[in-house]
Amino acid sequence: MAGELDRERIAKYVVARRGSLGLTQEQLAERAGVTVKTIYNLEAGERWPQARTRSAIETALEWRSGDLVRVGEGLEPARQETDMTVVLRELEELNAYFADLQADSGDKRRMALAFLRALYGEPDGR
């Protein structure tokens, strides 16, 4: 099976996911309980880890079991259910930003509004 998988694609996805989690190779290795060399080899597309090691890496990347194989087959990782504590923390952070913007005299508030309009594809509104 490992010969059929696109290891370069797997490597790119692992690097991107590790980056989105804000982890170094060392931190990912520690989370997964593997050596840094194992992470390096996976990210370089040089070696395909054994099933138990793959599972530990998937868990450390907050992916579901089998996601490394799915990525290697050209598919996307399965989506994890969102942890409600993460959602609540993000909403609290947004509330803090909006409270700050309400108190702003103008420039910061206008920039945020322009960003949100661009994000949602809405006209400028001027």
From TrEMBL:
Residues 14-68 form the HTH cro/C1-type domain. InterPro entries: Cro/C1-type_HTH, Lambda_DNA-bd_dom_sf. Coiled coil: none annotated. Transmembrane segments: none annotated. It comes from the Bacteria. It holds the Pfam family HTH_3. This is HTH cro/C1-type domain-containing protein.
